[in-house]
Amino acid sequence: MPLLVTGFHGCHIETAMNIVSGVGFKHSENGYDWLGTGVYFWEDAPDRAAEWAHSRFGTDGAVISATIRLGNSLNLLDITHFNWLKDSYNGLVTRSLNLPTNKNKRHYLDYTA
Question: How far apart are CA 52 and CA 58, in angstroms?
């Protein structure tokens, strides 16, 4: 049985109205997005989502709640995967790939298009 989590999406009030009216979510596709293209949620953290939305949009900030069914996902809070992540990173470095670097608070190291 898939795991269900409650996620909270911080956004502009106009975006929230579009989402709930059926337009749906617009995927973020910035090269500096933290973990790649998609829609970002704060798990079980409505106050954190609100803080983010209001810091970005002021009084026009809003939060949407969603029940999300996790499929094949990597839980970065579970230490079970840490050695695999470390080995994967070391494998990339060993292959002398030109890895991106984080700069200006952008997460280029975490995701490349």
Answer: 10
